[in-house]
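Deliverable D4.2, example record:
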Amino acid sequence: MALDRPNSRLPKLPWLSLVLLFLTYMTFGWLLYDWTRNREIWLMVAFAVVAMSGFVTYPSRSISFSFGGFFKTDVRALILMIMGSIGSVILLTWVQFFVDAIVLCAAGLLVSLDLKTLGWSKVKSLMLIVSWQLLATAVGLYAHYLYLFPLSNLPAYFYGDYWLQLLARLNLEFANRLKS
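Output generated by the structure prediction step:
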């Protein structure tokens, strides 16, 4: 869903895909803060996000392969079966990790395909996807930080205990009215 502006100098953007990508990576940033507070791991995740967006934007033919020549000997078939069983055990053990990675890749791939349909070059789409993913991850990290450690100058209704105190006051007033 691109915004069509015939006389505009701004490029067309797939807003629905970009919002979906932003929300996906913002959720990832929120979960990342929950998983670890180690900033070195956050830096490694940022490099992984850049690598993933490069993989999505520049798919390589070397990734696809066939098993035709691999089954020529029984030893190779046995090695492939052992590797496949170990891989399936790892996949089933870490199924949540793989599901999260597939969702992140799918959101990036959707934006990449939409940008390719709109005629964007690979370099421009890579820059847009990388910056959007890193911004969304940083927003998710910061939002979780603000959730745990709210700023002291925020209005009182941003704090959870404000709502509990308000409900207790309303309940007390309601109980007093019933008694009278």
